[in-house]
TrEMBL record:
The central subunit of the protein translocation channel SecYEG. Consists of two halves formed by TMs 1-5 and 6-10. These two domains form a lateral gate at the front which open onto the bilayer between TMs 2 and 7, and are clamped together by SecE at the back. The channel is closed by both a pore ring composed of hydrophobic SecY resides and a short helix (helix 2A) on the extracellular side of the membrane which forms a plug. The plug probably moves laterally to allow the channel to open. The ring and the pore may move independently. Pfam families: SecY. The chain crosses the membrane at residues 21-42, 62-95, 115-134, 140-166, 178-196, 208-231, 265-287, 307-327, 369-386, 392-410. GO terms for biological process: intracellular protein transmembrane transport; protein targeting; protein transport by the Sec complex. It comes from Anseongella ginsenosidimutans. Gene3D superfamilies: SecY subunit domain. Component of the Sec protein translocase complex. Heterotrimer consisting of SecY, SecE and SecG subunits. The heterotrimers can form oligomers, although 1 heterotrimer is thought to be able to translocate proteins. Interacts with the ribosome. Interacts with SecDF, and other proteins may be involved. Interacts with SecA. Keywords: Cell membrane, Membrane, Protein transport, Translocation, Transmembrane, Transmembrane helix, Transport. It is found in: Cell membrane; Membrane. It is a multi-pass membrane protein. One of its GO terms (cellular component) is plasma membrane. This is Protein translocase subunit SecY. Belongs to the SecY/SEC61-alpha family.
Length: 441
């Protein structure tokens, strides 16, 4: 406890770090307040009664911190921006123009960011119209429908751009990556309510009492620890650089390592797999008679065996797919060769690329299986008696995002402490954050 208190005192002593933490809290508070500002012309009482928490809508509502169900001006949150970022990331693999921009350094990155913002506006406008038609019932609208639709599309688009601006300000003036922190704070906002409901349910008749609640908390802690292992796990490939002597100075001649992540795809395989698994529910809404058949009904129940087996297989396949398009062994081998580096015992060039590709294939298999297990843990938790709302914190996208963002934020704070000659946050070792926030979103 004394170590923790001393660390907090050291954090408060550093003026720059203190200012960044206070700025982060202020910007996140603004975001949370904005999530309760309802669209003009909507009756929130009727809206809350008609909202469906299941399926994709419940997941989006969790990421938005409840703003989706509240029909807030920030209802769409940063999800359109994430969608645009995924599209641009895929285009950088398939389209030569975007590949060229990616290699142009800072100027190319600025151009890609500008294109991403324009695409975000287009996606937001389309999602805003779909949100108004699908999630705002007609009896909740108290003004002219045409006027409400036009004004709400503009407001929702402006709300998403404002959330993006808050995220950029948190990145510049605060701690860590702002977009990731905004998503995480929206997910954590559900935790107190879910924990209270779970506690009340356990102390009711037949709920299991205090022992069952303690067992659930211990199980959650174990799942979090194993998730940290998945996020942090790397396979280090040694790289030796040739020694050069220029005048009286020696350059190179040192051994470094290439850290290949066990889960290089992050949460993207879960997101892709979930998008496909929501197709049966969509078909069921269009054709109600088909939804009652045994095949479709089993895929509409996310706790069924057929749903989770299919979900796990899709995650494993998408993990290999996304890793293949984001990790380029040939490019890594060429860059290594240009800088005079080589893997000991492996020829530079094509042989090095094949060696890296083989290593990636081997470590991706256990990573993908573990990722699939984490994804289906909420369904397993529901089957053993955990409430559906609290079970979402036992795995899936929400847990991976929370673990990744917390580790990244702690790593940022520790780097500030070490830079000022203080001890780090942990007494036994350094905190290793993620290589990039995009790996978790």
């Amino acid at each position: 406890m004394k170590k923790l208190i001393d660390t907090l005192v050291n954090i408060w002593k550093i003026e720059d770090l203190r200012t960044r933490i206070l700025n982060t809290i202020m910007f996140l508070a603004i975001y949370r307040l904005g999530s309760y500002v309802v669209l003009p012309g909507v009756n929130p009482a009727i809206l809350n009664q008609s909202f469906d928490q299941s399926g994709l809508l419940g997941l989006l509502n969790m990421f938005a911190g409840g703003a989706f169900a509240n029909a807030s001006v920030m209802a769409l949150g940063v999800m359109p921006y994430i969608s645009a970022s995924i599209v641009i990331q895929l285009l950088t693999v398939a389209v030569p123009y975007f590949q060229k921009l990616q290699k142009e350094g800072e100027s190319g990155r600025k151009k890609i960011n500008q294109i991403t913002r324009y695409l975000t506006i287009i996606i937001t406008a389309g999602q805003a119209m779909a949100f108004i038609k699908a999630q705002v019932p007609a009896n909740a609208i108290m003004v002219n429908m045409t006027l409400f639709t036009v004004s709400s599309v503009v407001i929702l688009t402006a709300g998403t751009m404002f959330v993006m601006w808050l995220g950029e300000k948190i990145t510049d003036k605060g701690i860590g990556n702002g977009i990731s922190l905004i998503i995480m704070i929206g997910i954590i906002a559900w935790l107190p309510q879910a924990l209270i409901q779970e506690s009340v349910a356990k102390f009711e008749s037949g709920g299991g009492g205090l022992i069952a609640l303690i067992v659930e908390m211990v199980a959650l802690a174990v799942v979090v620890m194993f998730t940290i292992l998945l996020v942090q796990g790397v396979r280090r490939i040694p790289v030796q650089y040739a020694k050069r002597i220029v005048g009286n100075k020696q350059y190179g001649g040192v051994r470094q390592y290439i850290p290949l992540k066990v889960n290089a795809a992050g949460v993207m395989p879960i997101i892709f797999a979930q998008a496909i698994m929501f197709i049966p529910a969509t078909v069921g809404q269009i054709f109600p008679s088909a939804a009652e058949s045994g095949f479709w009904s089993s895929f509409n129940d996310y706790t069924s065996v057929s749903y989770n087996v299919t979900f796990a297989i899709l995650i494993i396949l998408f993990t290999y797919f996304y890793t293949a398009i984001t990790v380029n062994p040939m490019q890594m081998a060429e860059d290594m060769k240009k800088n005079g580096g080589f893997v000991p015992g492996v020829k530079p060039g094509r042989a090095t690329a094949d060696f890296i590709d083989t290593i990636m294939s081997r470590i991706t298999l256990p990573g993908s299986v573990f990722l699939a297990l984490i994804a289906i843990l909420p369904a397993i938790a529901v089957q053993v008696g955990v409430s559906s709302q609290f079970a979402q914190f036992y795995g899936g996208t929400s847990l991976l995002i929370m673990v990744g963002v917390v580790l990244d934020t702690l790593q940022q704070i520790e780097s500030h402490l070490l830079m000022r000659h203080y001890d780090g946050l942990m007494k036994t070792g350094r905190i290793k954050g993620r290589a990039a926030v995009g790996a978790s979103i």
